[in-house]
């Protein structure tokens, strides 16, 4: 409970007025719930003693009618407020979580799977929100009702009978505690299994085209049903423990009734108690059933919330290794970027992917990077995106380490076109303008032109306004590449990186794009990672990367004069034409 208060204390503090009103309402509801049984007892005693008058009857009937109306109004107001507060809390927590995710570096995303991250912001967040809102009701209303009922029973009916009937209740609650502690362990396992199932479903939805293309529906369905079965099985385990608790508690509760009836009758004979008193008493025992079992539910809710808070906080505690400092510098342009002995290893890999890289990128140059697949070309060039910190060595931007600049500024210098293209379910122009949301239509037209995407527009029924992505028009691989290039170009980046982004375009389009870059990006830097030598033969410098090392470096003319990978591959490409 302390953990919950600690975790959402900030919210309760901010919303203290609403919480105070809700608290008062709950206390009011719990007190008012006890009044009808008391009135009934009083009425019976009045009738039995032949003291009933017309005015008392009207008063009793009037009160019995009024009480549900007041109770209903208070409950209505409470429910309205609690729902509003729950939504507010969920919204704020979700916002904080997503903001935090945006600040995390790539190492974090290597550590956690998408499904897991989603389940923490859905089912875990729901458990926390429940704890922050319905828990208040559970505790204040139920505990309030139990306490007030015991006070009324003990002081106005019979303290002896109260002691006899109520002392058995803690036994029921103890049984529940034992089962609860076992359940807690299984809930945690269940959450992990649930996250795994979410991940599998996500993967199948995302990969449904590939699954269908390879006729793997049955295998995939089997994988899905295995995950679902595992989820159900783990849930069954939990339910079994719950089923243990319920019948045991019913038996104990039954004993409380028997004790109340038998001792109550005895006390009436002894004239220690009235018939009306016993009726009120038994009615209260009945009324206590709900709150006592609810309190058991509250313990479960607290447990769930504790587990969820742990899972939620685990993410919120993660810090990004790549982060800004208070004195991070601004940068809007650069003259020279130097890699000095740069080695980089992915966080969870053993061996480095790029080793002792030394190279210089100058403003205005076009640099080509070639080499076998898996040599580390993307890894090398993505170092400019500040996804990870380098493992050894340093990258200097105008003689200062890249880490001394604001991450956002460094990323703004770069327009990166990745190998795989992400299209959002938006129109073509909106997809392009992700690169620069406040771009003018001239900027948009220019980007479309340089990326040689103009010719594609006439094939799209709504031109730039055509909806693409899921449930929109499907674009060809080449069209997606050109759209991605336009997206990078619209921000007019100091450095444009085409990471094998011309692989799906024909030779003529590739030529057009390269020529446009030359014409429109004078004074700006282009880095072209490619398998096709035609795209880089005019580059100012070409680097050959093999097994993470730069093995050759020079212009096209220089490289074809050297024996090495470049010359061999060049000749091979020429003969294949
Ligand atoms: P290239 O661009 O030359 O084809 P990459 O830089 O994409 O090469 O990959 C180089 C090596 O790094 C490959 O062995 C690849 O499996 C590995 N690699 C790429 N991305 C990651 C990653 N996120 N985590 C771990 N290893 C990776």
Kindly describe this structure.
The chain contains 20 helices and ten strands. By secondary structure, the protein is an alpha/beta fold. It folds into two domains: 2-317, ABC transporter transmembrane region fold (Up-down Bundle); 336-422 and 495-576, Rossmann fold (3-Layer(aba) Sandwich), CATH 3.40.50.300. The strands form two sheets. A six-stranded mixed β-sheet has the order 6-7-8-3-9-10. Strand 7, helix 18 and strand 8 (525-529) form a beta-alpha-beta unit. Helix 5 (114-121) packs across helix 8 and helix 10 packs antiparallel against helix 11 (275-317). The longest helix is centred in the middle third of the chain and has 53 residues, at 217-269. The radius of gyration is 36 Å and the shape is elongated. The N and C termini lie far apart (72 Å). 29% of the residues are buried. The mean pLDDT is 89.
